Amino acid sequence: MKFTFWAILLLIPSAVADTGDGKNWRGMTEALRVGYVSGYMDAVFHMSTAATPLSAQERGDGKLDEKKAADRNFARGVRKMSGEYFPSNLTVGDVMDGLNRFYDEPANRNIPIPWAIEILAMKVNGKPEDDINNSIRLAREINAH
User: Fold this and answer.
1) Do 26 and 32 meet the contact criterion of CB atoms below 8 Å apart?
2) CA–CA separation, 90 vs 98, rounded Å?
3) Cα 98 from chain centroid?
4) Residue 79's pLDDT band (cuts 50, 70, 90)
5) Is the separation of the CB atoms in 86 and 107 below 8 Å?
6) Residue 52 to residue 89: CA distance in whole angstroms
7) Residue 90: phi, psi to the nearest 5?
8) Contact, 78 vs 48, CB < 8 A?
9) What average pLDDT does the chain have?
10) DSSP string covering the chain, please?
């Protein structure tokens, strides 16, 4: 039983290793898409929470020393940054729908999934349309094959 578990675990990366762009996204099953977006969302969440230092606590007198204030500012910056890389106010299903629409455009299919999620976050966060279009154009140019 242990051997089967480890054998399956070792095969998973090879089964999903080619999940990098829109062509791969369009070939994924619904379950793989849910897993991809959920895993990506968890990674962004853990990145932001792991960067929140435990030392960013107030002293007993209610004041912060300079180091702790810097830690707290850093943690705020990481949380803000994570919102730029994942549209945190959307559900997994919403992100999947957004990726499906994004990759319906054939010119977007070489764009890596994380970059597409970042572009979706730009849209959700109300970034200017020019900035979004510039990101899409740059992503297409860099990933043209």
Assistant:
1) no
2) 10
3) 13
4) low
5) no
6) 20
7) -105, 155
8) yes
9) 77
10) -HHHHHHHHHHHHHHHTT-SBHHHHHHS-HHHHHHHHHHHHHHHHHHHHHTS-TT----TTS---HHHHHHHHHHHHHHHHHHHHS-TTS-HHHHHHHHHHHHHSGGGTTSBHHHHHHHHHHHHTT--HHHHHHHHHHHHHHT--
Q: Which two tokens stand for residue 65?
A: 């020393």
Report the pLDDT averaged over residues 127-139.
96
Residue 11's identity, in one-letter code, is L
- Write down the pLDDT at residue 13: 43
Q: Give the CA distances from residue 23 to residues 45, 94, 100, 140, in Å, rounded to whole numbers and listed in that order.
A: 26, 19, 11, 13
| Long-range interactions of 56-64: CB distance < 8 A, separation 24+ | none
- How far, in Å, CA of 38 to CA of 113, rounded? 13
Higher pLDDT, 68 or 17: 68
**Structure confidence by residue, pLDDT tens digits, 103-120:** 999 999 999 999 999 999
pTM above threshold 0.85: no
Widest distance between CA atoms in the chain = 60
pLDDT of 25 reads 97
Position 59 scores a pLDDT of 46
